[in-house]
Amino acid sequence: MSQENVETLRRNNAAFNRRDRDGAFAGYHHDVEWRQLQHAPDTPERLNGVSAVLANWDQWEAAFDDFGADIEEYIDGGAYVLAVTRWRATGRDSGVAIDLRTVDVFEFADGKIVRATIGYSDKDAALADLGLAPDGGSPDS
């Protein structure tokens, strides 16, 4: 099941980068908890439900001419998938480029993403928050 979780996240990310809203959230539970550790000052840290996340997407589209998330590494952790992600955007009015690398954690239940935590500074911080030792081994060890 865990490789299926990785594949679900791959499909969702590809759809996100195409701006395909339905495809981007096809693998999410409708009541997903979305937590942004590095959220904008005018955005709450926690969002609940796909509709709230989509409203946040509307804010991104208003603020940026271009934005995307390139997942550079998927780490299969059973019920969790850790994604080393390069977030990129260009400010609509300012033209300022944003290039940020984070580790994002997606928790799955019954084949759907039920919780997403976006914005860990590194793998060790993400693993520690999950209560898993960052010992270089598998996240589910």
Overview of this protein structure:
About 30% of the residues lie in helices and about 45% in strands. It is of the alpha+beta class and about 140 residues long. It has a single domain (about 1-130), classed as Nuclear Transport Factor 2, Chain: A (Roll). The longest helix has 17 residues, at about 1-20. The mean pLDDT is about 90.
Number of domains: 1
CATH architecture: Roll
Helix content: 25-40%
- Tally of individual helices: 4
Radius of gyration: 15 Å
Round the mean pLDDT to the nearest integer and report it: 90
Strand content is 35-45%
Number of strands: 6
Task: Using the coordinates shown, work out and report the CATH topology.
Answer: Nuclear Transport Factor 2, Chain: A
Terminal-residue CA separation: 16 Å
Which series of helices and strands comes N to C? HHEEHEEEEH
The top level CATH class name: Alpha Beta
- General form: globular
Low-confidence stretches: none
Biggest sheet layout: 6 strands, mixed
| Arrangement of strands in the largest sheet | 2-1-6-5-4-3
Structural class: alpha+beta
